Amino acid sequence: RIVLRNMETGRAAVAGVSAVVPEKAAGDFMIYPPLFLAPGKGARYIGDNPAGTSEENTAGARLAEFFLLDSGAFLPSLEKTLEGGADITAAVRISGPAVKTATFKLSAFLVDSATSEQVPVGLDVIKEKNGKDVRIYLLRLHIPEVEPDIYGLHMVAEDTASGAASHISSDFTIAEKRD
């Protein structure tokens, strides 16, 4: 649960969200759910700018560095509704010992909750960053124009050499594209 309060007006809001921590995959790497990004700037993060903290060491700056974001251009988005026919920017993390040497092929697809139909989602890698047992991708996902409904967004990371793969899915509502 999160409680927010406007310090000027005293008004408050409460929100809750379910979070699932995926179990560790049996293989040597694991893909995590995407962090969707929306155009914008000016987000405030818990722990930002405590006394004596430099601008480069704020929670927002650390998050931006970890996920390859331009914090002046993108904000994390927790929306559970995506627009059909839209391009969405997302950061995706893969971790595990195999990350050091693996060459990954990333793919994505939607699964309609009503019909179980699979629909490919195009994706382009914008940036890639390697760390200790972790690789971060900044992606552009091309959400197809589909009938508005609830869909599972599935993402797969496959090691091209070994054929090993890791898979993650999250449910989203796909809405009609706004003009």
Task: Label this structure with key terms.
mainly beta, ten-stranded mixed sheet, 1 helix, 179 residues, two-stranded antiparallel ribbon
Describe what this molecule looks like in 3D:
The structure is a single chain. The model has no long low-confidence stretch (mean pLDDT 81). This protein is mostly beta strands and 179 residues long. The relative contact order is 0.21. The strands form 2 sheets. Strands 3, 4, 5, 6, 7, 8, 9, 10, 11 and 12 form a 10-stranded mixed beta sheet that branches. The chain contains 1 helix and 12 strands. The protein starts with a strand and ends with a strand. Helices cover 4% and strands 47% of the residues.
Question: What would you say about this model in short?
Answer:
The protein is mostly beta strands. The chain is 4% helix and 47% strand.
Let me know the largest β-sheet: 10 strands, mixed
Rg (C-alpha, Å) = 18 Å
Give the count of helical stretches: 1
Instruction: Give the overall form.
Output: globular
Q: Which stretches of 5+ consecutive residues score pLDDT under 50?
A: none
Could you give the count of β-strands?
A: 12
Helix content: under 10%
Overall residue-averaged pLDDT value:
81
Strand composition percent: over 45%
**Helix vs. strand class:** mainly beta
Kindly, what is the distance between the CA atoms of the first and last residues, rounded to a whole number of angstroms?
34 Å
Order of helices and strands: EEEEHEEEEEEEE
